[in-house]
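INFO  loader      accepted 1 record
INFO  loader      residues=456
INFO  predictor   begin
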Amino acid sequence: MSSEEVLESLLEIGDQVVAEALAKGATVAEATIRQGSHLSTKVRKGEPELVEEAGSRALGMRVVIGKQVAVTYTSDLSAQGRAQLVADAIELAQLSQEDEFAGPPDPSLLSDVADHVDLDTYDPTMDATGAEEALKRALAGEAAAFAADERITNSEGATFTRASGGSALVTSGGFRGTSRGTYASLVVSPVADDADGKKRSGYHWTAKRQLAELEDPAAVGAEAARRTLRKLGAAKIDSQEMPVVFDPDAARAILGLLAGCVNGGAIWRRSSYLLDRLDSQVASELVTIIDDPLIPRAPGSRPYDGEGLLSRKNVVVDGGTLKTYLLDSYAARKLDMESTASASRGASGGVGPSTSNFVLQPGEMKPEQVRDVPKGLYVTEMMGFGFNAVTGDFSRGAAGFLIENGELTQPVAEVTISLNLDELLKRIDAVGDDLDLRTSTAAPTFRVSSMTVAGR
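INFO  predictor   done
INFO  writer      dumping tokens
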């Protein structure tokens, strides 16, 4: 069956269960149907350790009776399984408490399929990559890491994964839409022996929607080895206040904290330090953050949101000023605002606001210019979960390198960096040009003028 035929069959299932739910008394019925395949292979020290391939199909429903809501899910897509799902959804809705804000978006806001943009998120060659080819890529990546330097003596493995799938959304408001996507990744994780007997592990990875755009496995392995070897001799540094530069991976983690705080659900629950902060300064003038689901081939791209609204680009922070929260219809009603077409619908049928491609816009400086300070800390890894979204307080374990006169020198480990996130974002005084959209939340290198670094 072709991918187009698969999507049409998913729509037909959606049509059937929505119609049946309405016939049984639902005021509103919505169905999301997904079908996909997944292959994961792992090698370690030149030997296959895992080959796992699976397919999945799932049907999730949300029904509303008056102001009573229920969400149900099944992986049984037989006629009997679908009938049971609808019956369960109706019964659960009748038992639920009323919610005055419940309900779908206004039907006039629903998008038309003719307006959906092809974002090139699907690679038809992906499923043709079988276990043999996947193992070959993983083996080549790990072999390159071992060949890079004799100090690479062990490995936590190399993993190649590819996934593909399609989904359909059908609502009683009149929306019928489909989307499909693919994603592949390779990660190599070598281990080196340090002089003090410690094992230092590192990694490098590549990930893309299109198989042909992945980095060469040998290049991934060589870079993984380089990143591991440069950690040899890592030690604590003295506690002090100093500039801190976040590399793209660490910067992405900081941006992810902000994403949770602009989520409409966190706002109406009053669990975000950004409550009542619209149109106020929340970051440096160098900071512009956009949530953009319309970037071709990007990990978080989608033609429509989880409620059927046409995807659109939202400028969340513009030159340091908070311009919007990310809202689905429910959060918008709770806050007396309008949806930003940011609804996400899980396989279970539940709906909530989320990011798509949440991106800190790149600056014009090269990464080496961003870290051009007399003394500072260059952070490549963070550990732990030290963040309070209500207050913005931030403190996490970190590792990276000491910066001396703009150069990366002593590897640093076992330190803690801390500063309230509100102040951290306002102290960003340099943003790099090295944005890489391997993940849906992405940021280039950036520098914070001063943070507390706790070491020895």
